[in-house]
């Protein structure tokens, strides 16, 4: 009997230890313009595990929130909760709504709530992000509508003490009407982004849906995965891989897009390359690696399927079972547009693209592939462009060469299957 009592006491004690502590905020709402900043920061810096934001009023206001070394916290939005940047409180150009620095094991459950800023107020600067994850590990964010920031909807990078973020999982996120990008990845590994939408980016260049753009050769882009995401109606490309700061000494890149839709991106006023996808790399000593598109759909665009000045010695790009439909409605835009890396200095071959059963359907007179060299003959050639393209159209399409001779092609093997359709 005595042993049973001891066992029961031990079990009860263990159960008490395992029960997570939680708190609901705010404790009391005093007005319709309630500022939640102090209570929110106090809760996150306390010993509670879960912070539940109550749905008392239409909008809670927040000043910039910066959190250092926060561990094991869950933030839960009750239904219809909206957290909004307080007007006039983000005076510095790098003020961020939620900035997490060296934080681990963070969960944010949005329950379809909103995180919004006041983009029209931020005339100068392009760094007022809604969420910044700097040197963080094990972060999960779901069901959150992030909009109207003065920079990026979400920004993922390293910190001064940890050069990358890792194990980041974003699920069912909408990044809409942000000023610079929907999402930026500067330095990260083991990232999964799924069931999310990146749209209507406009206000500060580049204006891409997502921009993967390291700042130095020491940054990393490793095991980055997008599943079932949509990139549409952004001011620049839906997907921008700006990898020119990485080089052959950098860790090879690995990025995968599965079952994604890229549609109707790039506004005419944007001066950057007019394409749904853009790939860049350093001209010499480029970073290696692999970027994969599996079962993706690119559609309804005035502009190119993709544009690149990437050399064939840089990372490779593969397209497997992808569909490209109603593209290059502006006939000046070739479907695939490759341009000499340097107009004044000879560089390596252009290329490094592989098409595994690509279905291409369009009805304008734009060439399906354009190779643009230079008057100074600085384009050594094109190489490592291979695969099968099934072309559905009312007329055959050609490859267009500008200031470049086809005889310089090396290891180019595109099997173009023409399928007539009167549309």
TrEMBL record:
<protein>
    <submittedName>
        <fullName>Right handed beta helix region</fullName>
    </submittedName>
</protein>
<dbReference type="InterPro" id="IPR012334">
    <property type="entry name" value="Pectin_lyas_fold"/>
</dbReference>
<dbReference type="InterPro" id="IPR011050">
    <property type="entry name" value="Pectin_lyase_fold/virulence"/>
</dbReference>
<dbReference type="InterPro" id="IPR006626">
    <property type="entry name" value="PbH1"/>
</dbReference>
<dbReference type="Pfam" id="PF13229">
    <property type="entry name" value="Beta_helix"/>
</dbReference>
<feature type="domain" description="Right handed beta helix">
    <location>
        <begin position="106"/>
        <end position="266"/>
    </location>
</feature>
<dbReference type="InterPro" id="IPR039448">
    <property type="entry name" value="Beta_helix"/>
</dbReference>
């Amino acid at each position: 009997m005595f042993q049973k009592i001891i066992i029961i006491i031990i079990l009860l004690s263990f159960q008490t230890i395992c029960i997570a502590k939680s708190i609901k905020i705010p404790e009391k709402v005093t007005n319709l313009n309630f500022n939640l900043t102090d209570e929110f920061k106090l809760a996150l810096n306390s010993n509670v595990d879960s912070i539940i934001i109550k749905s008392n009023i239409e909008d809670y206001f927040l000043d910039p929130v910066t959190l250092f070394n926060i561990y094991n916290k869950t933030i839960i939005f009750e239904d219809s909760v909206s957290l909004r940047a307080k007007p006039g409180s983000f005076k510095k150009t790098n003020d961020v709504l939620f900035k997490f620095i060296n934080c681990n094991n963070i969960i944010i459950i949005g329950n379809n709530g909103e995180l919004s800023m006041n983009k029209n107020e931020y005339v100068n600067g392009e760094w007022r992000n809604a969420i910044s994850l700097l040197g963080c590990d094990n972060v999960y964010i779901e069901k959150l509508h992030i909009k109207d920031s003065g920079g990026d909807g979400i920004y993922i990078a390293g910190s001064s003490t940890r050069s990358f973020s890792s194990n980041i999982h974003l699920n069912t996120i909408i990044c809409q009407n942000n000023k610079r990008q929907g999402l930026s990845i500067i330095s990260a590994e083991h990232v999964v982004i799924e069931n999310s939408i990146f749209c209507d980016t406009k206000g500060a260049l580049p204006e891409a849906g997502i921009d993967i753009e390291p700042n130095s050769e020491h940054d990393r882009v490793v095991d980055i995965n997008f599943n079932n995401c949509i990139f549409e109606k952004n001011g620049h490309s839906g997907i921008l891989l700006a990898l020119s700061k990485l080089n052959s000494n950098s860790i090879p890149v690995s990025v995968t897009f599965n079952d994604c839709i890229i549609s109707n991106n790039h506004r005419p006023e944007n001066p950057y390359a007019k394409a749904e996808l853009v790939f860049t790399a350093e001209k010499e000593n480029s970073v290696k690696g692999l970027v994969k598109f599996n079962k993706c759909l690119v559609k309804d665009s005035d502009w190119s399927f993709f544009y690149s000045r990437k050399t064939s010695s840089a990372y490779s790009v593969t397209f497997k079972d992808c569909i490209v439909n109603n593209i290059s409605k502006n006939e000046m835009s070739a479907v695939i547009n490759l341009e000499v890396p340097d107009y004044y200095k000879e560089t390596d071959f252009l290329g490094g693209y592989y098409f595994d059963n690509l279905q291409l359907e369009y009805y304008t007179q734009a060439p399906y592939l354009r190779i643009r060299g230079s008057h100074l003959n600085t384009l050594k050639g094109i190489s490592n462009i291979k695969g099968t393209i099934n072309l559905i159209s009312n007329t055959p399409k050609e490859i267009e060469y500008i200031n470049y001779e086809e005889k310089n092609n090396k290891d180019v093997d595109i099997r173009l299957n023409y399928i007539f359709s009167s549309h």
